[in-house]
Amino acid sequence: MEQARRTHAALTAAALIFLGAAAGAPLRYLTDRFVQARHDSPSPWGTFSYETLRLAEQEAYFYAAMNLIVSVVAGVGAALLSHTYVAAMVG
Known about the structure:
Number of domains: 1
Largest sheet: none
Strand content: under 5%
Number of helices: 3
Structural class: mainly alpha
């Protein structure tokens, strides 16, 4: 019974991750298009590597560094949060 609960929890977590990724990518793109159409800002709203490179090429080094730092911290934070959630669900 315990094994069945763990399997169900793991499948539920995997499904939530899949759905989050499926919804997140287009929403990030649409958010980028929405913001860029209304603001002329060096602040990136799109793809991490492209935007960081674009900022560095424009010699906006502070914004490039902040994009790198914030993206890494947010990514690691999201990974830790996901790990904690799945560990709590699976046991």
